[in-house]
Predict the structure.
Amino acid sequence: MSGSGGGGGGSPETPVASCEDLVIETQLSSPKDDVVDKIKVGDSLDVGIQTKSGTSVVVVLYKGKVAGGLASPLVGRLRECLNNDTQYKAKVLSKSGGQVRVRVEAV
């Protein structure tokens, strides 16, 4: 007879990437038209946290101005890493009108 390897029921957990290995490809959410107009494919943008009304939001900045937020299931992990002093850049992969797709990774 063979025994089970243990572990309970339920779905397996997705392993959490280390802060240095975390990579997110997503579109900017709530893009700011006046800032997005100046962004070009290939630009490297800063990633930071902005707090409004007690809520912290991960934002992408172009020359110190908010270009938009990030919408991804991994944003919570990204926020933790930013709070633990890991720095990230967002490289602009594509731009179509006001839609900007970025790749976020640690620097």
User: Anything to note?
Assistant: The chain is about 10% helix and 45% strand.
